[in-house]
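Support request from a user on the community tier.

User writes: "When I paste my structure tokens into the form, the page sometimes reloads and wipes my input. The last time it worked, I copied everything first. Here is what I submitted, just in case something in the input itself triggers the reload:"
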């Protein structure tokens, strides 16, 4: 079992990233060989400020370590330090089909109405993502629900490449989506869109770096409805914001939504929101404290990333070489 997954350094780590991906990565470290990377090449598919990107890579590395990623157990590195990722992505662009990429909902969401003005990289993003996991022959890719479609595309690319070139090179990776409510945490401002780093509204998400007061305030202001909470999760259908907050409570406390509702049924959000703030702060505050300490030691962070990159370069080399050979290049 080899686990590979990444996160873009496009902003501050938020509760959705943590519950949907990072805290699950942390748990997998003891069960499998794990590689985790900062997807800084993926970050280039949207407008970036070079000075901010450079700082974000280090900040995101610190946030992952603060959340429990242990560089002694897992290989942690920046994608741009391992040229095999974009090299393999180029080879795989010969395999991926326009029609496949056209169906990707992330492309449709992020390009919006302005497809002509979107970067080419935003369109081919999932091919680089396929290379990220195929180059290590990852068996499991722990991601949030929003990335399921991209991992399925990586599987299609792996199968087509193996067939086209009559090789058994690539392993079709399994998307590994968490159960329960953590797999898709929604925005605090709109129960129909997912919590995202790139959402322009700060109030839509809770950051790992938010103080206790800011967490409580964002949850107090979170969009809700005036109805009291029901006693059965099925009765939350049609109430996306209420459903999301109950889901967040379940995910941060480790309860089921049914158990959460047993505690709060009949009560309104005036009672629920402060309890949710307490539970969220209990989860995040210790991680935030560690992050603040780690920021003081950039040399240590750079050292961890350099050591991780060295290992990743070595692990990726044979697969990249075989891919070149399969298509008739190199010997
Ligand atoms: P961006 O808006 O820049 O795409 P993002 O918040 O979507 O940022 P990514 O770096 O794209 O974050 O994704 C990192 C990981 O977090 C992925 O595994 C993704 O599936 C997961 N993830 C992102 N948002 C959520 C969410 N709202 N709920 C659960 N998991 C999420
Ligand atoms: Mg994303």
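"...and here is what came back when it finally went through:"
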């Amino acid at each position: 079992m080899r686990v590979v997954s990444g996160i873009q350094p496009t902003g501050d780590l938020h509760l959705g990233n943590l519950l949907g991906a990072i805290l699950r990565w942390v748990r997998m470290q003891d069960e499998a060989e794990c590689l985790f990377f900062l997807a800084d090449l993926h970050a280039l598919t949207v407008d970036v400020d070079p000075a901010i990107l450079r700082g974000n890579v280090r900040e995101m590395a610190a946030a992952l370590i603060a959340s429990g990623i242990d560089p002694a157990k897992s290989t942690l590195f920046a994608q741009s330090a391992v040229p095999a990722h974009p090299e393999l992505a180029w080879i795989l662009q010969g395999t991926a089909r326009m029609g496949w990429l056209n169906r990707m909902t992330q492309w449709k969401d992020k390009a919006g109405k302005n497809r002509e003005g979107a970067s080419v990289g935003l369109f081919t993003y999932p091919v680089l993502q396929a290379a990220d996991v195929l180059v290590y022959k990852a068996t499991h890719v722990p991601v949030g629900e929003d990335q399921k479609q991209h991992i399925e595309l990586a599987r299609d690319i792996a199968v087509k490449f193996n067939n086209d070139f009559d090789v058994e090179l690539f392993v079709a990776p399994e998307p590994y989506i968490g159960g329960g409510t953590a797999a898709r945490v929604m925005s605090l401002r709109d129960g129909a869109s997912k919590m995202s780093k790139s959402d322009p509204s700060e109030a839509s998400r809770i950051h790992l770096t938010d103080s206790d007061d800011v967490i409580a305030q964002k949850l107090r202001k979170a969009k809700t409805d005036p109805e009291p909470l029901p006693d059965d999760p099925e009765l939350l259908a049609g109430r996306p914001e209420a459903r999301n907050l109950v889901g967040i409570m379940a995910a941060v406390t480790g309860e089921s939504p049914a158990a959460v509702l047993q505690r709060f049924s009949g009560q309104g959000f005036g009672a629920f929101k402060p309890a949710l703030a307490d539970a969220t702060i209990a989860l995040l505050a210790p991680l935030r404290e560690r992050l603040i300490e780690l920021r003081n030691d950039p040399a240590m962070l750079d050292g961890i990333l350099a050591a991780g990159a060295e290992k990743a370069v070595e692990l990726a080399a044979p697969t990249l070489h075989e891919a070149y050979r399969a298509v008739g290049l190199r010997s």
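Agent notes: The reload is a front-end session timeout and is unrelated to the input. The CA atoms of residues 22 and 64 lie 7 Å apart. The chain has two domains: 2-178+297-326, 202-292. Escalated to web team.
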